Amino acid sequence: MSDKTGKQENLTAGKIWEDFIETTGFHAVNKIDFGKKHPPGRSLFWMCIWLLSAGYLIFTVTTELISYYKYPTTTTVSVKNNDELDFPAVTICNLATRNRSMFAEDERTDIYYLGISALYDTAAKVNWSDPFYTTEGYFNERTLDDLYMESKSLSNFITFHKFDLKPFYLKYTPVSTDLGLCVRFNMDSPPEKTVMHGGVYNLQMYIDLRLDDDYFAATYLSSGLKVVVHDQSEVVMMANDGFVVPPASEALIEISRKEYKYLPPPFRAFEDDTCDDKRSNYSTSKCHQCCLRDYLLQQCSCVGFMFNSPTGKYCSQERYLECFIPEFWNILKKGLNCSCPFQCQYTEYDTKLSFGLFPSTFMLKSLATMLNETEDYIKNNFISLTLFYKDLKTTITEQKPCMRMLEMFFLMLADKWDYFLVQAF
Ligand SMILES: *[C@@H]1O[C@H](CO)[C@@H](O)[C@H](O)[C@H]1NC(C)=O
Ligand SMILES: *[C@@H]1O[C@H](CO)[C@@H](O)[C@H](O)[C@H]1NC(C)=O
Ligand SMILES: *[C@@H]1O[C@H](CO)[C@@H](O)[C@H](O)[C@H]1NC(C)=O
Ligand SMILES: *[C@@H]1O[C@H](CO)[C@@H](O)[C@H](O)[C@H]1NC(C)=O
Ligand SMILES: *[C@@H]1O[C@H](CO)[C@@H](O)[C@H](O)[C@H]1NC(C)=O
């Protein structure tokens, strides 16, 4: 019984093969008939050819599969013309942000502030057992109000500004940075957009530096402004970025916009690194800032004004000098191990600067009337800033997956599946 069924199956399989090779369109298969119609040698020859081809196909598909799982990419650079562009955020700091009138005129105050200035090397050691420091509150925790009180209010001394020819239009807010209290234009999202470009449009302003109020500055020995043009989502270190504008100058800042788009995992965005796009609000600089802050918070149990304090309390002046600053320098020397992956998409702004003497001798008189200040004061204290897009173009650097053989094969198959079916059967 079982023998009979076996024979039947054999017969059926043989019959099916015969049927198949008679009707199939696959090359060479119809020549393999095991000597039924043609000499056996011929079958053998075609079988070899067929097996070789099949082997080659398997080899190709395997290599393609291996290459497929390496996720090869290519990077393209293109230029896009826009009808309108988001205007970047602009952060501006007076190089000397402290207001002298707010500090007690005492040698011991000067010793302390020299100790946290760029000339800290030359400062004498603060004698903390001197009761002066206790009565002046150097051991008390501080709040943002203290920062606002003892800083020059730069925002009051932006004497004039306009955006796309609209006076006093673009919003700005005081922000605390590593250089002290600064101002930031256009920080809200969504950011202000512009449809205009060129040297007379976009953001223009006059700023009064109030150099007579100077007190020990944080990082610099010169006077002027520090300006950083950046994306709204970035956290900027004013000391690491941007450019300085000297007093008595008119600075023209030409901006061009660059976008970078990298592929999320499993693709490799930066050589052996992947990028992070899961959290849409994620920014590498924010992550670094938090990592830095948490480390300092751990070391000193307080942070300086450049960070956002979770409790709203900041280092006392004593802690700032004795713990925060030394730890901060330590990090700069040693580096800090933050696991902050790169973000997959970001925008950068390139700037090109040119300067003129501000104001011209001839225009000085009219400006003195307009600003209600003496000519001498204007010559020493004023800066004119113009920040503008050169054009409304964006240079986009984009990583793209390579079109791979396997994908092409499946695309072709999808396109021509009916043809293949008809051929095969
Ligand atoms: C520090 O101040 C205290 C109190 O004024 C004084 O007695 C002491 O001599 C000072 N120490 C130094 C090193 O100046
Ligand atoms: C410095 O403080 C004095 C006194 O409060 C104030 O009149 C002056 O406007 C301040 N200067 C700046 C640049 O904020
Ligand atoms: C991003 O952050 C803003 C405010 O910081 C918040 O309103 C918004 O919901 C966040 N978006 C996402 C996707 O988390
Ligand atoms: C940073 O972390 C990595 C892995 O977490 C470790 O291999 C490396 O030694 C660390 N570097 C420093 C300076 O701590
Ligand atoms: C110009 O400034 C002076 C003092 O600096 C003031 O008395 C005067 O009122 C001001 N004039 C105008 C038009 O604001």
From TrEMBL:
<keyword id="KW-0739">Sodium transport</keyword>
<keyword id="KW-0812">Transmembrane</keyword>
<comment type="similarity">
    <text>Belongs to the amiloride-sensitive sodium channel (TC 1.A.6) family.</text>
</comment>
<keyword id="KW-0406">Ion transport</keyword>
<keyword id="KW-0472">Membrane</keyword>
<keyword id="KW-0894">Sodium channel</keyword>
<protein>
    <recommendedName>
        <fullName>ASIC5</fullName>
    </recommendedName>
</protein>
<feature type="transmembrane region" description="Helical">
    <location>
        <begin position="44"/>
        <end position="69"/>
    </location>
</feature>
<keyword id="KW-0915">Sodium</keyword>
<keyword id="KW-1133">Transmembrane helix</keyword>
<dbReference type="InterPro" id="IPR001873">
    <property type="entry name" value="ENaC"/>
</dbReference>
<dbReference type="Pfam" id="PF00858">
    <property type="entry name" value="ASC"/>
</dbReference>
<dbReference type="GO" id="GO:0005886">
    <property type="term" value="C:plasma membrane"/>
</dbReference>
<keyword id="KW-0407">Ion channel</keyword>
<keyword id="KW-0813">Transport</keyword>
<dbReference type="GO" id="GO:0015280">
    <property type="term" value="F:ligand-gated sodium channel activity"/>
</dbReference>
